[in-house]
Amino acid sequence: MTPYAELLYFIASVLFILGIRGLTSAETARRGVIYAEIGMAFAVAGTLINPEIHTYRWILVTAGIGSAIGIAMAALIPMTKMPERIALSHAFGGLAAALVGVSEYSIYQAGIHVDHLGHAVQLSHGTMGALGFEVLFGGLTFTGSLIAFGKLQGFIPGRNITYPYQNQSNIGIFATAVLLLVLLTVWPSLQILFYLMFLVALVLGVLFVIPIGGADMPVVISLLNSYAGLAASATGFALDNNVLIIAGALDGASGFILSIVMSRAMNRSFSNVLFGAFGQGDGSAAAVMGKDAAPVREASVGDAAMLLSSGTKVIVCPGYGMAVAQAQHAVQKMAELLERDGIEVKYAIHPVAGRMPGHMNVLLAEANVPYDSLKELEEINDEFAEADVALVVGANDVVNPAAKTNTNSPIYGMPVLNADLAKSCIVLKRSMNPGFAGIENELFTIPNTVLVFGDAKDTIEKIVEALS
Amino acid sequence: MTHEMILGLYVFVLAAFVGYGTIRGVPPLLHTPLMAFTNAISGISLVGSIVAAGAEKSTFSTVLGCIAVLCASINVVGGFLITDRMLKMFRKRGGAKGEAKK
Prior knowledge:
heterodimer; A: alpha/beta; Rossmann fold; 6-stranded parallel β-sheet; 6 strands; B: mainly alpha; 4 helices; flat
Protein backbone atom coordinates (compact mmCIF):
# COMPACT_ATOMS: atom_id res chain seq x y z
CA MET A 1 0.00 0.00 0.00
CA THR A 2 1.40 3.39 -0.97
CA PRO A 3 1.64 6.25 1.54
CA TYR A 4 -0.82 8.22 -0.62
CA ALA A 5 -3.38 5.45 -0.34
CA GLU A 6 -2.84 5.31 3.42
CA LEU A 7 -3.46 9.05 3.64
CA LEU A 8 -6.62 8.85 1.54
CA TYR A 9 -7.89 5.97 3.70
CA PHE A 10 -7.20 8.00 6.81
CA ILE A 11 -9.18 11.00 5.51
CA ALA A 12 -12.00 8.65 4.49
CA SER A 13 -12.16 7.19 8.01
CA VAL A 14 -12.43 10.64 9.59
CA LEU A 15 -15.14 11.66 7.12
CA PHE A 16 -17.16 8.52 7.88
CA ILE A 17 -17.17 9.33 11.59
CA LEU A 18 -18.12 12.95 10.91
CA GLY A 19 -20.85 11.70 8.60
CA ILE A 20 -22.39 9.49 11.28
CA ARG A 21 -22.15 12.36 13.74
CA GLY A 22 -24.26 14.39 11.32
CA LEU A 23 -27.07 11.91 11.73
CA THR A 24 -27.51 12.80 15.38
CA SER A 25 -29.89 15.55 14.30
CA ALA A 26 -32.30 15.95 11.41
CA GLU A 27 -30.88 19.41 10.66
CA THR A 28 -27.35 18.17 10.01
CA ALA A 29 -28.15 14.72 8.63
CA ARG A 30 -27.91 15.53 4.94
CA ARG A 31 -24.58 17.25 5.43
CA GLY A 32 -23.40 14.07 7.16
CA VAL A 33 -24.30 12.03 4.10
CA ILE A 34 -22.21 14.36 1.94
CA TYR A 35 -19.19 13.91 4.25
CA ALA A 36 -19.50 10.15 4.01
CA GLU A 37 -19.90 10.28 0.23
CA ILE A 38 -16.69 12.29 -0.07
CA GLY A 39 -15.05 9.82 2.30
CA MET A 40 -16.11 6.92 0.10
CA ALA A 41 -14.74 8.68 -2.97
CA PHE A 42 -11.36 9.11 -1.22
CA ALA A 43 -11.31 5.46 -0.17
CA VAL A 44 -12.09 4.27 -3.70
CA ALA A 45 -9.48 6.62 -5.16
CA GLY A 46 -6.91 5.29 -2.70
CA THR A 47 -7.72 1.76 -3.83
CA LEU A 48 -7.60 2.50 -7.54
CA ILE A 49 -3.98 3.68 -7.27
CA ASN A 50 -3.04 0.34 -5.72
CA PRO A 51 -0.15 -1.09 -7.79
CA GLU A 52 -1.56 -4.62 -7.38
CA ILE A 53 -4.33 -3.77 -9.82
CA HIS A 54 -3.41 -4.90 -13.32
CA THR A 55 -6.57 -4.09 -15.20
CA TYR A 56 -9.47 -1.71 -14.66
CA ARG A 57 -11.65 -3.41 -17.25
CA TRP A 58 -13.63 -5.66 -14.91
CA ILE A 59 -13.77 -3.09 -12.16
CA LEU A 60 -15.29 -0.47 -14.46
CA VAL A 61 -17.84 -2.86 -15.96
CA THR A 62 -19.04 -4.37 -12.68
CA ALA A 63 -18.96 -1.11 -10.72
CA GLY A 64 -20.87 0.54 -13.55
CA ILE A 65 -23.58 -2.12 -13.54
CA GLY A 66 -23.71 -2.08 -9.73
CA SER A 67 -24.05 1.70 -9.63
CA ALA A 68 -26.85 1.61 -12.20
CA ILE A 69 -28.72 -1.01 -10.16
CA GLY A 70 -28.10 1.03 -7.01
CA ILE A 71 -29.43 4.22 -8.59
CA ALA A 72 -32.50 2.45 -9.96
CA MET A 73 -33.26 0.78 -6.64
CA ALA A 74 -32.82 4.00 -4.68
CA ALA A 75 -35.08 5.93 -7.03
CA LEU A 76 -37.83 3.38 -7.57
CA ILE A 77 -38.36 1.59 -4.27
CA PRO A 78 -41.44 2.88 -2.45
CA MET A 79 -40.95 3.87 1.18
CA THR A 80 -43.28 1.06 2.30
CA LYS A 81 -40.75 -1.43 0.88
CA MET A 82 -37.85 0.01 2.85
CA PRO A 83 -37.46 -3.01 5.18
CA GLU A 84 -37.14 -5.26 2.13
CA ARG A 85 -34.56 -2.95 0.57
CA ILE A 86 -32.52 -2.89 3.77
CA ALA A 87 -32.65 -6.68 4.15
CA LEU A 88 -31.51 -7.08 0.56
CA SER A 89 -28.63 -4.66 1.00
CA HIS A 90 -27.44 -6.60 4.06
CA ALA A 91 -27.44 -9.68 1.83
CA PHE A 92 -25.29 -7.87 -0.74
CA GLY A 93 -22.92 -6.61 1.96
CA GLY A 94 -22.53 -10.08 3.45
CA LEU A 95 -21.98 -11.69 0.06
CA ALA A 96 -19.37 -9.11 -0.96
CA ALA A 97 -17.39 -9.65 2.24
CA ALA A 98 -17.63 -13.45 1.98
CA LEU A 99 -16.54 -13.52 -1.66
CA VAL A 100 -13.55 -11.26 -1.03
CA GLY A 101 -12.59 -13.70 1.72
CA VAL A 102 -12.91 -16.76 -0.51
CA SER A 103 -10.99 -15.01 -3.27
CA GLU A 104 -8.13 -14.06 -0.91
CA TYR A 105 -7.96 -17.57 0.48
CA SER A 106 -7.81 -19.12 -2.98
CA ILE A 107 -4.96 -16.79 -3.92
CA TYR A 108 -2.99 -17.76 -0.81
CA GLN A 109 -3.60 -21.46 -1.41
CA ALA A 110 -2.52 -21.23 -5.05
CA GLY A 111 0.75 -19.73 -3.85
CA ILE A 112 0.28 -16.64 -5.97
CA HIS A 113 0.00 -14.17 -3.10
CA VAL A 114 3.28 -12.30 -3.46
CA ASP A 115 4.91 -9.45 -1.55
CA HIS A 116 6.49 -6.42 -3.23
CA LEU A 117 9.68 -8.38 -3.89
CA GLY A 118 7.78 -11.11 -5.69
CA HIS A 119 8.15 -13.78 -3.00
CA ALA A 120 5.14 -15.96 -2.30
CA VAL A 121 3.55 -15.13 1.06
CA GLN A 122 2.34 -17.89 3.35
CA LEU A 123 -1.05 -17.54 4.98
CA SER A 124 -0.43 -16.74 8.66
CA HIS A 125 -2.64 -18.05 11.46
CA GLY A 126 -3.84 -14.55 12.26
CA THR A 127 -4.82 -13.71 8.69
CA MET A 128 -6.49 -17.11 8.41
CA GLY A 129 -8.56 -16.39 11.52
CA ALA A 130 -9.66 -13.05 10.07
CA LEU A 131 -10.48 -14.59 6.68
CA GLY A 132 -12.43 -17.37 8.34
CA PHE A 133 -14.40 -14.96 10.49
CA GLU A 134 -15.12 -12.85 7.42
CA VAL A 135 -16.42 -15.78 5.39
CA LEU A 136 -18.41 -17.18 8.32
CA PHE A 137 -20.20 -13.91 9.14
CA GLY A 138 -20.45 -12.80 5.53
CA GLY A 139 -22.00 -16.12 4.53
CA LEU A 140 -24.56 -16.26 7.29
CA THR A 141 -25.47 -12.60 6.81
CA PHE A 142 -26.02 -13.30 3.12
CA THR A 143 -28.45 -16.20 3.45
CA GLY A 144 -30.01 -14.89 6.68
CA SER A 145 -30.81 -11.57 5.02
CA LEU A 146 -32.23 -13.32 1.96
CA ILE A 147 -34.60 -15.27 4.22
CA ALA A 148 -35.54 -12.06 6.05
CA PHE A 149 -36.18 -10.46 2.66
CA GLY A 150 -38.30 -13.44 1.59
CA LYS A 151 -40.36 -13.24 4.77
CA LEU A 152 -40.95 -9.51 4.41
CA GLN A 153 -41.81 -9.90 0.74
CA GLY A 154 -44.11 -12.86 1.45
CA PHE A 155 -42.16 -15.45 -0.59
CA ILE A 156 -41.65 -17.36 2.63
CA PRO A 157 -44.40 -17.62 5.27
CA GLY A 158 -43.89 -14.73 7.70
CA ARG A 159 -44.85 -16.70 10.78
CA ASN A 160 -42.29 -18.50 12.87
CA ILE A 161 -41.45 -21.85 11.33
CA THR A 162 -40.55 -24.36 13.98
CA TYR A 163 -39.64 -28.02 14.18
CA PRO A 164 -38.52 -30.29 17.00
CA TYR A 165 -35.01 -29.76 18.43
CA GLN A 166 -34.66 -26.61 16.35
CA ASN A 167 -32.58 -24.65 18.85
CA GLN A 168 -30.42 -27.63 19.70
CA SER A 169 -29.63 -28.34 16.06
CA ASN A 170 -28.97 -24.64 15.33
CA ILE A 171 -26.58 -24.38 18.24
CA GLY A 172 -24.95 -27.60 17.08
CA ILE A 173 -24.43 -26.23 13.58
CA PHE A 174 -23.10 -22.96 14.95
CA ALA A 175 -20.67 -24.88 17.16
CA THR A 176 -19.57 -26.86 14.10
CA ALA A 177 -18.85 -23.63 12.22
CA VAL A 178 -16.82 -22.25 15.12
CA LEU A 179 -14.92 -25.52 15.45
CA LEU A 180 -14.09 -25.44 11.73
CA LEU A 181 -12.89 -21.85 12.13
CA VAL A 182 -10.60 -22.84 15.00
CA LEU A 183 -9.21 -25.86 13.10
CA LEU A 184 -8.55 -23.68 10.07
CA THR A 185 -6.76 -21.08 12.12
CA VAL A 186 -4.45 -23.80 13.39
CA TRP A 187 -4.04 -25.53 9.98
CA PRO A 188 -4.71 -22.84 7.35
CA SER A 189 -3.89 -25.12 4.42
CA LEU A 190 -6.79 -27.52 4.95
CA GLN A 191 -8.81 -26.18 2.03
CA ILE A 192 -11.65 -28.65 2.39
CA LEU A 193 -12.39 -27.27 5.87
CA PHE A 194 -12.53 -23.73 4.51
CA TYR A 195 -15.13 -24.46 1.88
CA LEU A 196 -17.04 -26.68 4.28
CA MET A 197 -17.17 -23.80 6.74
CA PHE A 198 -18.47 -21.46 4.05
CA LEU A 199 -21.22 -23.96 3.28
CA VAL A 200 -22.09 -24.38 6.97
CA ALA A 201 -22.28 -20.57 7.31
CA LEU A 202 -24.75 -20.37 4.41
CA VAL A 203 -26.94 -23.09 5.94
CA LEU A 204 -26.71 -21.45 9.35
CA GLY A 205 -28.02 -18.12 8.05
CA VAL A 206 -31.13 -19.84 6.68
CA LEU A 207 -31.80 -21.88 9.81
CA PHE A 208 -31.28 -18.97 12.19
CA VAL A 209 -33.79 -16.65 10.52
CA ILE A 210 -36.42 -19.22 9.44
CA PRO A 211 -37.88 -19.64 12.95
CA ILE A 212 -38.21 -15.91 13.60
CA GLY A 213 -41.63 -14.33 13.05
CA GLY A 214 -42.48 -11.14 11.19
CA ALA A 215 -43.10 -9.05 14.31
CA ASP A 216 -39.53 -9.73 15.44
CA MET A 217 -38.05 -8.57 12.13
CA PRO A 218 -36.81 -5.23 13.53
CA VAL A 219 -34.42 -7.10 15.82
CA VAL A 220 -33.31 -9.55 13.14
CA ILE A 221 -32.64 -6.80 10.62
CA SER A 222 -30.64 -4.83 13.19
CA LEU A 223 -28.64 -7.90 14.12
CA LEU A 224 -27.88 -8.74 10.49
CA ASN A 225 -26.80 -5.12 10.05
CA SER A 226 -24.32 -5.66 12.84
CA TYR A 227 -23.05 -8.94 11.32
CA ALA A 228 -22.55 -7.30 7.92
CA GLY A 229 -20.41 -4.68 9.67
CA LEU A 230 -18.37 -7.29 11.52
CA ALA A 231 -17.75 -9.16 8.26
CA ALA A 232 -16.48 -5.94 6.66
CA SER A 233 -14.26 -5.32 9.67
CA ALA A 234 -12.82 -8.83 9.43
CA THR A 235 -12.02 -8.10 5.78
CA GLY A 236 -9.99 -5.17 7.07
CA PHE A 237 -8.01 -7.46 9.37
CA ALA A 238 -7.37 -9.95 6.58
CA LEU A 239 -6.26 -7.27 4.11
CA ASP A 240 -4.51 -5.16 6.72
CA ASN A 241 -6.66 -2.17 5.86
CA ASN A 242 -7.72 0.24 8.58
CA VAL A 243 -10.49 2.04 6.73
CA LEU A 244 -12.28 -1.29 6.34
CA ILE A 245 -11.83 -2.05 10.02
CA ILE A 246 -13.18 1.37 11.03
CA ALA A 247 -16.15 1.45 8.64
CA GLY A 248 -17.06 -2.12 9.61
CA ALA A 249 -16.81 -1.30 13.31
CA LEU A 250 -19.12 1.71 12.86
CA ASP A 251 -21.67 -0.44 11.04
CA GLY A 252 -21.34 -3.18 13.63
CA ALA A 253 -21.84 -0.72 16.50
CA SER A 254 -24.87 0.78 14.79
CA GLY A 255 -26.55 -2.58 14.28
CA PHE A 256 -25.70 -3.57 17.85
CA ILE A 257 -27.27 -0.43 19.32
CA LEU A 258 -30.39 -0.79 17.20
CA SER A 259 -30.77 -4.44 18.23
CA ILE A 260 -30.58 -3.43 21.88
CA VAL A 261 -33.10 -0.61 21.40
CA MET A 262 -35.48 -2.98 19.61
CA SER A 263 -35.16 -5.80 22.15
CA ARG A 264 -35.74 -3.37 25.00
CA ALA A 265 -38.82 -2.02 23.29
CA MET A 266 -40.18 -5.55 23.35
CA ASN A 267 -38.94 -6.26 26.87
CA ARG A 268 -37.10 -9.30 25.59
CA SER A 269 -33.53 -10.43 25.54
CA PHE A 270 -31.54 -11.11 22.39
CA SER A 271 -31.57 -14.82 23.04
CA ASN A 272 -35.32 -14.79 23.56
CA VAL A 273 -35.86 -13.21 20.15
CA LEU A 274 -33.41 -15.57 18.46
CA PHE A 275 -34.43 -18.76 20.19
CA GLY A 276 -37.87 -17.93 21.56
CA ALA A 277 -40.11 -18.43 18.48
CA PHE A 278 -42.51 -15.91 19.96
CA GLY A 279 -46.07 -16.60 21.03
CA GLN A 280 -46.12 -20.20 19.94
CA GLY A 281 -48.12 -22.34 22.34
CA ASP A 282 -50.01 -19.27 23.53
CA GLY A 283 -51.40 -18.79 20.05
CA SER A 284 -54.02 -21.52 20.23
CA ALA A 285 -55.08 -20.56 23.73
CA ALA A 286 -55.52 -16.93 22.70
CA ALA A 287 -57.53 -17.87 19.65
CA VAL A 288 -59.93 -19.90 21.77
CA MET A 289 -60.14 -17.07 24.28
CA GLY A 290 -61.02 -14.71 21.45
CA LYS A 291 -64.26 -16.53 20.79
CA ASP A 292 -65.86 -16.02 24.16
CA ALA A 293 -64.10 -12.80 25.13
CA ALA A 294 -66.05 -9.64 25.89
CA PRO A 295 -67.92 -8.28 22.87
CA VAL A 296 -66.43 -5.39 20.91
CA ARG A 297 -68.27 -2.22 19.92
CA GLU A 298 -68.30 -1.57 16.22
CA ALA A 299 -68.62 1.96 14.90
CA SER A 300 -69.38 3.37 11.48
CA VAL A 301 -67.07 5.71 9.60
CA GLY A 302 -69.48 8.56 10.37
CA ASP A 303 -69.31 7.88 14.13
CA ALA A 304 -65.51 7.82 13.94
CA ALA A 305 -65.39 11.14 12.07
CA MET A 306 -67.75 12.66 14.63
CA LEU A 307 -65.62 11.42 17.54
CA LEU A 308 -62.44 12.73 15.95
CA SER A 309 -63.81 16.18 15.25
CA SER A 310 -65.55 16.67 18.59
CA GLY A 311 -62.43 16.89 20.77
CA THR A 312 -59.35 19.08 20.89
CA LYS A 313 -56.55 16.54 20.84
CA VAL A 314 -56.01 13.42 18.76
CA ILE A 315 -53.06 11.03 19.04
CA VAL A 316 -52.47 8.68 16.12
CA CYS A 317 -50.83 5.32 16.90
CA PRO A 318 -49.58 3.84 13.62
CA GLY A 319 -48.45 0.24 13.17
CA TYR A 320 -47.43 -2.20 10.47
CA GLY A 321 -51.03 -2.26 9.22
CA MET A 322 -50.64 1.35 8.13
CA ALA A 323 -47.66 0.38 5.99
CA VAL A 324 -49.49 -2.61 4.49
CA ALA A 325 -52.55 -0.51 3.61
CA GLN A 326 -50.31 2.39 2.45
CA ALA A 327 -52.57 4.62 4.52
CA GLN A 328 -49.95 7.21 5.50
CA HIS A 329 -51.03 9.82 2.94
CA ALA A 330 -54.68 9.49 3.92
CA VAL A 331 -53.71 9.83 7.59
CA GLN A 332 -51.85 13.03 6.82
CA LYS A 333 -54.83 14.45 4.91
CA MET A 334 -57.10 13.64 7.82
CA ALA A 335 -54.70 15.30 10.26
CA GLU A 336 -54.61 18.41 8.07
CA LEU A 337 -58.40 18.70 8.15
CA LEU A 338 -58.51 18.20 11.92
CA GLU A 339 -55.79 20.77 12.47
CA ARG A 340 -57.68 23.21 10.29
CA ASP A 341 -60.48 22.95 12.82
CA GLY A 342 -58.10 23.70 15.65
CA ILE A 343 -57.65 20.11 16.81
CA GLU A 344 -54.15 19.17 17.85
CA VAL A 345 -52.82 16.02 16.14
CA LYS A 346 -49.74 14.12 17.28
CA TYR A 347 -48.28 10.76 16.36
CA ALA A 348 -47.13 8.24 18.93
CA ILE A 349 -44.34 6.12 17.47
CA HIS A 350 -43.50 2.87 19.24
CA PRO A 351 -39.90 1.77 18.57
CA VAL A 352 -40.97 -1.61 17.18
CA ALA A 353 -44.03 -0.46 15.24
CA GLY A 354 -43.49 -1.78 11.73
CA ARG A 355 -40.86 -4.15 10.45
CA MET A 356 -37.66 -2.20 11.02
CA PRO A 357 -36.29 0.52 13.30
CA GLY A 358 -37.81 3.89 12.42
CA HIS A 359 -40.20 2.41 9.83
CA MET A 360 -43.20 4.56 10.83
CA ASN A 361 -41.19 7.79 10.92
CA VAL A 362 -40.05 7.36 7.34
CA LEU A 363 -43.56 6.56 6.09
CA LEU A 364 -45.11 9.57 7.80
CA ALA A 365 -42.29 11.86 6.71
CA GLU A 366 -42.94 10.70 3.15
CA ALA A 367 -46.59 11.70 3.59
CA ASN A 368 -45.40 15.19 4.53
CA VAL A 369 -46.01 14.95 8.26
CA PRO A 370 -43.63 17.39 9.98
CA TYR A 371 -41.18 15.49 12.16
CA ASP A 372 -41.88 17.60 15.23
CA SER A 373 -45.33 15.94 15.36
CA LEU A 374 -43.75 12.47 15.55
CA LYS A 375 -43.32 11.66 19.22
CA GLU A 376 -41.41 8.82 20.82
CA LEU A 377 -43.06 6.50 23.31
CA GLU A 378 -41.58 8.04 26.49
CA GLU A 379 -42.20 11.52 25.20
CA ILE A 380 -45.91 11.11 24.57
CA ASN A 381 -47.13 8.38 26.88
CA ASP A 382 -48.24 10.81 29.60
CA GLU A 383 -50.23 12.83 27.10
CA PHE A 384 -52.75 10.09 26.30
CA ALA A 385 -54.70 10.82 29.49
CA GLU A 386 -55.47 14.32 28.20
CA ALA A 387 -56.19 13.24 24.63
CA ASP A 388 -59.79 13.03 23.43
CA VAL A 389 -59.14 10.32 20.88
CA ALA A 390 -56.38 7.76 20.37
CA LEU A 391 -56.61 6.58 16.77
CA VAL A 392 -54.95 3.19 16.30
CA VAL A 393 -54.07 2.56 12.65
CA GLY A 394 -52.96 -1.01 12.06
CA ALA A 395 -51.12 -1.38 15.37
CA ASN A 396 -51.84 -4.19 17.77
CA ASP A 397 -49.32 -5.47 20.29
CA VAL A 398 -47.77 -2.02 20.82
CA VAL A 399 -51.08 -0.68 22.19
CA ASN A 400 -52.11 -3.77 24.17
CA PRO A 401 -52.70 -2.78 27.81
CA ALA A 402 -52.26 -6.43 28.81
CA ALA A 403 -48.52 -5.72 28.66
CA LYS A 404 -49.00 -3.42 31.67
CA THR A 405 -51.46 -5.44 33.74
CA ASN A 406 -51.71 -9.10 32.76
CA THR A 407 -48.75 -11.03 34.15
CA ASN A 408 -49.83 -14.09 32.11
CA SER A 409 -49.59 -12.30 28.80
CA PRO A 410 -46.60 -13.27 26.65
CA ILE A 411 -45.91 -9.58 26.11
CA TYR A 412 -46.17 -8.64 29.80
CA GLY A 413 -43.60 -5.99 30.70
CA MET A 414 -43.18 -4.66 27.17
CA PRO A 415 -43.50 -0.87 27.13
CA VAL A 416 -46.71 0.02 25.27
CA LEU A 417 -48.50 3.17 24.15
CA ASN A 418 -51.18 4.21 26.64
CA ALA A 419 -53.93 4.31 24.02
CA ASP A 420 -56.32 2.82 26.61
CA LEU A 421 -56.01 5.97 28.76
CA ALA A 422 -57.39 8.34 26.12
CA LYS A 423 -61.00 9.46 26.64
CA SER A 424 -61.95 7.34 23.67
CA CYS A 425 -60.07 5.07 21.38
CA ILE A 426 -60.79 4.28 17.74
CA VAL A 427 -59.16 1.14 16.38
CA LEU A 428 -58.97 0.63 12.62
CA LYS A 429 -58.76 -3.06 11.92
CA ARG A 430 -59.11 -5.30 8.93
CA SER A 431 -60.89 -8.11 10.77
CA MET A 432 -61.25 -9.59 14.23
CA ASN A 433 -58.39 -12.05 13.70
CA PRO A 434 -55.91 -11.92 16.54
CA GLY A 435 -52.69 -10.07 15.75
CA PHE A 436 -49.56 -11.67 14.43
CA ALA A 437 -48.49 -13.12 17.74
CA GLY A 438 -52.00 -14.44 18.34
CA ILE A 439 -52.33 -12.49 21.57
CA GLU A 440 -55.71 -11.25 22.76
CA ASN A 441 -55.75 -7.45 22.80
CA GLU A 442 -57.64 -6.09 25.81
CA LEU A 443 -57.71 -2.64 24.26
CA PHE A 444 -60.38 -3.80 21.81
CA THR A 445 -62.85 -4.74 24.52
CA ILE A 446 -62.55 -1.90 27.06
CA PRO A 447 -65.65 0.36 27.26
CA ASN A 448 -64.14 3.47 25.68
CA THR A 449 -62.91 1.68 22.56
CA VAL A 450 -64.77 1.41 19.26
CA LEU A 451 -63.61 -0.60 16.27
CA VAL A 452 -63.99 0.36 12.64
CA PHE A 453 -63.52 -2.65 10.37
CA GLY A 454 -62.12 -2.41 6.87
CA ASP A 455 -58.96 -1.48 4.99
CA ALA A 456 -57.24 1.30 6.92
CA LYS A 457 -56.66 3.44 3.85
CA ASP A 458 -60.30 3.11 2.72
CA THR A 459 -61.62 3.91 6.16
CA ILE A 460 -59.47 6.99 6.60
CA GLU A 461 -60.27 8.26 3.13
CA LYS A 462 -63.96 7.96 4.03
CA ILE A 463 -63.31 9.82 7.29
CA VAL A 464 -61.57 12.54 5.28
CA GLU A 465 -64.67 12.82 3.07
CA ALA A 466 -66.90 13.02 6.12
CA LEU A 467 -64.71 15.72 7.66
CA SER A 468 -64.46 17.95 4.62
CA MET B 1 -0.53 -12.65 16.42
CA THR B 2 1.38 -10.23 14.27
CA HIS B 3 2.14 -6.62 15.07
CA GLU B 4 -0.35 -5.50 12.38
CA MET B 5 -3.11 -7.59 13.92
CA ILE B 6 -2.63 -5.97 17.32
CA LEU B 7 -2.68 -2.52 15.74
CA GLY B 8 -5.82 -3.57 13.88
CA LEU B 9 -7.43 -4.57 17.17
CA TYR B 10 -6.65 -1.14 18.63
CA VAL B 11 -8.25 0.51 15.62
CA PHE B 12 -11.29 -1.78 15.76
CA VAL B 13 -11.98 -1.31 19.45
CA LEU B 14 -11.49 2.45 19.37
CA ALA B 15 -13.69 2.80 16.28
CA ALA B 16 -16.36 0.63 17.91
CA PHE B 17 -16.36 2.89 20.97
CA VAL B 18 -16.54 6.04 18.84
CA GLY B 19 -19.34 4.46 16.83
CA TYR B 20 -21.23 3.37 19.93
CA GLY B 21 -20.92 6.80 21.56
CA THR B 22 -21.95 8.68 18.44
CA ILE B 23 -24.74 6.43 17.22
CA ARG B 24 -26.40 6.36 20.63
CA GLY B 25 -27.12 10.03 19.98
CA VAL B 26 -29.04 9.33 16.78
CA PRO B 27 -32.76 9.94 17.48
CA PRO B 28 -35.21 7.06 16.78
CA LEU B 29 -36.75 9.39 14.20
CA LEU B 30 -33.72 8.73 12.00
CA HIS B 31 -33.19 5.03 12.69
CA THR B 32 -34.20 3.89 9.21
CA PRO B 33 -31.94 6.42 7.44
CA LEU B 34 -29.18 5.45 9.90
CA MET B 35 -29.48 1.83 8.83
CA ALA B 36 -29.37 2.68 5.14
CA PHE B 37 -26.46 5.02 5.81
CA THR B 38 -24.25 2.63 7.78
CA ASN B 39 -25.07 0.05 5.16
CA ALA B 40 -23.68 2.33 2.48
CA ILE B 41 -20.59 2.95 4.59
CA SER B 42 -20.01 -0.76 5.11
CA GLY B 43 -20.12 -1.03 1.33
CA ILE B 44 -16.48 -0.10 1.91
CA SER B 45 -15.85 -3.80 1.22
CA LEU B 46 -15.76 -2.30 -2.27
CA VAL B 47 -12.13 -1.47 -1.47
CA GLY B 48 -11.27 -5.14 -0.97
CA SER B 49 -13.44 -6.22 -3.90
CA ILE B 50 -11.76 -3.81 -6.32
CA VAL B 51 -8.33 -5.26 -5.59
CA ALA B 52 -9.64 -8.81 -5.93
CA ALA B 53 -11.28 -7.97 -9.28
CA GLY B 54 -8.38 -6.02 -10.71
CA ALA B 55 -5.34 -7.98 -9.57
CA GLU B 56 -6.04 -10.79 -12.06
CA LYS B 57 -4.32 -13.41 -9.92
CA SER B 58 -6.56 -16.23 -11.12
CA THR B 59 -9.82 -16.54 -13.01
CA PHE B 60 -11.53 -17.79 -9.87
CA SER B 61 -10.46 -14.83 -7.75
CA THR B 62 -11.28 -12.35 -10.52
CA VAL B 63 -14.79 -13.71 -10.96
CA LEU B 64 -15.47 -13.64 -7.21
CA GLY B 65 -13.98 -10.15 -7.04
CA CYS B 66 -16.26 -8.94 -9.83
CA ILE B 67 -19.39 -10.28 -8.12
CA ALA B 68 -18.22 -8.61 -4.91
CA VAL B 69 -17.65 -5.28 -6.70
CA LEU B 70 -21.15 -5.54 -8.14
CA CYS B 71 -22.75 -6.17 -4.72
CA ALA B 72 -20.68 -3.56 -2.91
CA SER B 73 -21.25 -0.84 -5.49
CA ILE B 74 -25.01 -1.44 -5.37
CA ASN B 75 -24.81 -0.86 -1.62
CA VAL B 76 -22.56 2.18 -1.78
CA VAL B 77 -24.34 4.06 -4.56
CA GLY B 78 -27.86 2.91 -3.71
CA GLY B 79 -27.31 3.29 0.03
CA PHE B 80 -26.17 6.90 -0.08
CA LEU B 81 -28.88 7.90 -2.57
CA ILE B 82 -31.69 6.28 -0.63
CA THR B 83 -30.46 7.75 2.66
CA ASP B 84 -30.57 11.19 1.11
CA ARG B 85 -33.96 10.50 -0.44
CA MET B 86 -35.32 9.65 3.00
CA LEU B 87 -33.66 12.57 4.76
CA LYS B 88 -35.07 14.97 2.18
CA MET B 89 -38.55 13.98 3.31
CA PHE B 90 -38.05 14.97 6.91
CA ARG B 91 -39.18 18.51 7.47
CA LYS B 92 -40.16 20.65 10.42
CA ARG B 93 -43.60 22.18 10.85
CA GLY B 94 -43.98 25.10 8.46
CA GLY B 95 -40.69 24.34 6.70
CA ALA B 96 -40.43 23.24 3.12
CA LYS B 97 -39.45 19.67 2.26
CA GLY B 98 -35.73 19.14 2.37
CA GLU B 99 -35.30 22.22 4.53
CA ALA B 100 -33.24 20.03 6.82
CA LYS B 101 -30.40 20.71 4.39
CA LYS B 102 -29.54 24.14 5.82
